[in-house]
Amino acid sequence: MKKPMAAGSGRVNVVPMLLVFCLAYVLGLVSNVTFDNFYVHNFLSPLMLPASRLQTPPTTPEAVPCILPPSLPPPEPTPPSLERRRMESGSGALHNMTDEELMWRASMVPRIKSTPKHGIVPKVAFLFLVRGDVPLRPLWDKFFEGHEGLYSIYVHTSPDYTGSPPPDSPFYGRIIPSQRTSWGNINLMDAERRLLGNALLDVANARFALLSESCIPILGFPVLYAYLTGSNTSFVDSFDRRDGRARHREFFAERNISLAQWRKGAQWFEMDRAFALEVVSDETYYGPVFRNGKHGVRNLEEHYPMTLASLLGWGSRNANRTVTYSDWRHPVGQHPKSHNGSEVTEELFEEMRRGYGDCYYNGGVAEVCAVFARKFKPEALDALLDLAPKLFAPA
Fold it and tell me: What rounded mean pLDDT belongs to the chain?
């Protein structure tokens, strides 16, 4: 039989339990504060934003201006693509293509033979190879007046030249990226190819006439335009001449240019688009042979286009004559006669148009053999302007 519990014994057992519970509670509070400080500081603090950035976002987003911080330098401009430079060159003569890029771009040919529905009006490209200004420009301005859309102008001048024609002149903005040239140096031929390359970028250019600062037109624009665009040949002076043979070297023969293929002629050509494309795209003869200085020959601008026509077998596609008259009957040293104002007469130009005798045009004998003439001095300008109404009158 169990003994009855003593009074107050249950109360005594509860007190220790309460003490244990209170102690556990206090220890829990202390440990919780310690753990929180330790955990937050050592593990979460690297991932948390500072209090200054813990802000409630506004209900309406604020507009952020698209500008660079003032402390940062502006980014370097991205160089224009080759395509962009080509497109820009269509409306102006300036671009930043290298010669290599230019010749590559200029050598491209449309493979679709039919022209677009709107048609392409053929233009004559006038290529001026000069040393500075074009002193006879006012005469050319009168020549071009009223015939916009039928011609293009390209000027290769000294890179040191800083002048400019007036904005109302068709020559305004027509200087192409140019390099230095010197008489008798191959860099003259470089300049001619540079002019052709720039002109070929315009698909409407069908004829290409090389001119100097002393050249003038000796026909009115409509007649001259019809003469050039109506021709089925190029006009590249190309002959097997005794004085030309003297410049042939064994160097050329070793590179497949025989003496029988070697040609000489007047520098001032007029050519069609097909031959111009051959000149700018030639990688066989120009760079490896003609531009190779080991041959020691100068004045190759009087040989390269002429010999190229021979090498390509251009045959009847070239008239083998120039359409730029020069007076070699009265030469001054190695240059043709220069003309001053007192010589400017209608009779002089009639003589110049006839050239040196009979010539052929599209297979028949022609009355007009020359459409340009040189060399006219700057002081002849006033006399030329006075005669311009008769000079440019319809034939």
Answer: 81
Contacts of 380 (CB under 8 A, 6+ apart): 136, 339, 340, 341, 343, 344
Sign of the C-alpha dihedral computed for residues 262, 263, 269 and 271 taken in this order: negative
Q: Angle CA(336)–CA(191)–CA(168) in degrees, nearest 5? A: 85
Task: Work out the average pLDDT over 247-259.
Answer: 96
Give the per-residue pLDDT at 111. Answer: 74
Of 5-9, 150-154, 372-376, least confident by mean pLDDT is 5-9
What integer pLDDT is reported at residue 102 of this predicted model?
74
Residue carrying structure tokens 């028949």: 364
Classify the C-alpha dihedral 249-306-90-173 as positive or negative. positive
pLDDT at 258 over 50: yes
Provide the β-strand partners of residue 127: 154, 210
pLDDT of residue 41: 40
pLDDT band for position 347 (cuts 50, 70, 90): very high
Residue ranges of domains in the chain, CATH in brackets? 85-109+119-324 (3.90.550), 325-395 (no CATH)
Please report which residue ranges of the chain form alpha helices under DSSP H.
Answer: 9-39, 82-91, 99-106, 137-144, 187-200, 221-229, 242-245, 250-253, 273-281, 304-311, 346-354, 381-391
Helix axes 273-281, 304-311, angle to 10 degrees: 100
- Name the token pair of 297: 């020959």
334 exposure class (CB count in 10 Å sphere: 0-12, 13-18, 19+) = exposed
Q: For residues 87 and 85, what is the distance between their CA atoms, to the nearest angstrom? A: 5
Backbone angles phi, psi at 95, to 5 degrees: -160, 175
**Average pLDDT rounded to a whole number, residues 240-244:** 84
Cα separations (Å) of 214 from 339, 349, 378?
9, 15, 8
